[in-house]
């Protein structure tokens, strides 16, 4: 009887899981194990680019790739994971309920922005977390040109000065000027709880972020959280008010809610604790990968971050190891000791750092060239050719950006 490896999610973790599982099965010439991937769309949505204005190239089709390697794609959204019964209940594209059985399950359903229960946030704050929300923000920004000129119209508040907030804010002066004209007096304000500009990113990189902010005219309001969002702007906890027609929320992220359906320990982001082979601790048949996995990257106590840099390597490991488990062959422990950061700083350039302490290696134009290469080539799916795609899914290939 055919055994089933079922993957939930077609992001970085899910796509690479599927390819690496097929790769190992192929090497062992095992045609009696099928790889099925369940996701709302057969496409890789390149979330790291959702702070950009042109979203048309941020979606890569996966249908031809899955066909080329023999991954069975099922369109739908998982609603329930029955761990004991080894089945996943889902809603298909027409809204009908259906189910899939599994022998090994790989949970790769990613993460989403964690909006706190704050007055006005759901009605008035935008985000850049999903394709739909990024499109909504872009439509709103385009619409500003039809509004009467005012300081509020020309102001964007970005809540959160972490990775996503910084990339969103630094791109914003150019995005606003493209819509409102070069002469427009645009204001971009980052509201952050930190005491210094970019402090959450580490000391070395923070001074580069401050320099880029100065050059681009992006200002920071530090040390006070947002207490309320409304149609005309935000109110800070310290009583200060900023009038702004556009508020972008970037603070906080949480793992997919499907993680809660699996018994196991979770970290503060809701990620499932996994062993070195990415099997969920306490589970026999379930792996977690990408943003759903709390995984050690080395022997020194570092853990994967919720980044596509980690999700790609985690995916190559989880697919390989789920297949290895079924085949009864040795798994390859997940290991990713090298960590880098490449942060887009808009028209100023980008900054590339190495190591967990984020040692600055490249800045400005050089950093930007690398960022462009990462964001337009390296993180995209491999060519839809069986030999190329399977070779690219080797879990021993190091991911360095
Ligand atoms: C604006 C922004 C900028 C970023 N910049 C960077 C960066 O510069 N560098 C970096 O390394 N990372 C960056 N990231 C983080 C990176 O995008 C994520 O860490 C990465 O996408 C995680 O990959 P994943 O496969 O785990 O999840 P995702 O990419 O989120 O994919 C999840 C998949 O699961 C599917 N899914 C969800 N729920 C269900 C369900 N119920 N049933 C079936 N399928 C489901 C989704 O449709 C999707 O296909 C950024 C993220 C954002 C939002």
Automatic annotation (TrEMBL):
InterPro entries: FAD/NAD-bd_sf, FAD/NAD-binding_dom, NDH-2
Keywords of this entry: FAD, Flavoprotein, NAD, Oxidoreductase
Signal peptide positions (record): none
Top-level taxon in the UniProt lineage: Bacteria
Pfam family, one: Pyr_redox_2
Xref: Gene3D superfamilies: 3.50.50.100
MF GO annotations: NADH dehydrogenase activity
Residue stretches making up the FAD/NAD(P)-binding domain: 4-313
UniProt record similarity statement: Belongs to the NADH dehydrogenase family.
Protein name: FAD-dependent oxidoreductase
Organism: Ectopseudomonas alcaliphila
